[in-house]
Amino acid sequence: MEINEILDSIYKLPASSKENLQQYITEVSHPKSFCLMEAEKVVPYVYFIKKGIVRAYASREENDITFWFGNEGETVVSMKSYVENKPGYENIELLEDCEFYKLETENLRKLFNEDIHIANWGRKFAERELVKTEELIISRQFKTSLERYKDLMRDKPNLLRRVQLGHIASYLGITQVSLSRIRAEMK
Questions:
Q1: Which of 87, 101, 49, 56 is nearest to 71 (CA)?
Q2: Is the whole model's pTM more than 0.90, yes or no?
Q3: Tell me, what's the pLDDT at 187?
Q4: What would you measure as the largest C-alpha separation in the chain, in angstroms?
Q5: What is the pLDDT, as a whole number, of residue 140?
Q6: Residue 160 or 26, more confident
Q7: Can you name the residues that pair with 68 across neighbouring β-strands?
Q8: Which of 18, 64, 99, 159 supports an S-S bond with 51, CB 3.0-4.6 Å?
Q9: How many angstroms separate the CA atoms of 175 and 167, rounded?
């Protein structure tokens, strides 16, 4: 996915503002299994996924808990690092070889002070991330694993073909055996 499409999906910028923002964006690639972000570390970058899939997870003694998947066109950011410049909570692992657009947070903050359109873009970006987080919390608290699986099938059907079932089961908060049962019932 091209950077113009990604930026416009957040908030449509005037051409001059978009050019100004793009001068600070670079392209990077990392292999499958690479850890893009580590919990307890400040991450001074915002990433936009050009190609590939990532997962956000928290580590526990007995296992990892996956709480988000991102694919082409989505943003990868540690909001704690982005907003407060403090260590984040999440680990981000690449589930495929990935290509990203990378933007240093400090450069973005500088642009917020120089260009009201980019500042508005940043506000819309943060609002979108807040809504995504709210939806995740509500889904975890009020929906069954079957409902969450159906939501995943509806909203991100490509993930079911590209992501290991163990990660999907972790995301749903169930075992792989329970996930197999759900999948069999739906056929």
A1: 49
A2: yes
A3: 74
A4: 55
A5: 86
A6: 26
A7: 56
A8: 99
A9: 10
Mean pLDDT score, 43-53:
97
Per-residue burial over 55-84, b if 16 or more Cβ lie within 10 Å, else e, is bbbeeeeeeeebbbbbbbebbbbbebbbee
- The DSSP element (H or E) to which 131 belongs, if any, is helix 116-142
- Calculate mean pLDDT across residues 89-96: 96
Question: Which of the four pLDDT bands, split at 50, 70 and 90, describes residue 46?
Answer: very high
Residues whose CB is less than 8 angstroms from the CB of residue 17 and which lie 6 or more positions away in sequence, other chains included: 115, 117, 118, 121
- Cα gap 74→1, rounded to integer Å: 10
Q: In what order do the strands lie in the sheet with 98-104?
A: 25-30, 98-104, 45-51, 75-76
Instruction: Report the C-alpha dihedral over residues 135, 127, 93, 29, rounded to 10 degrees.
Output: 140
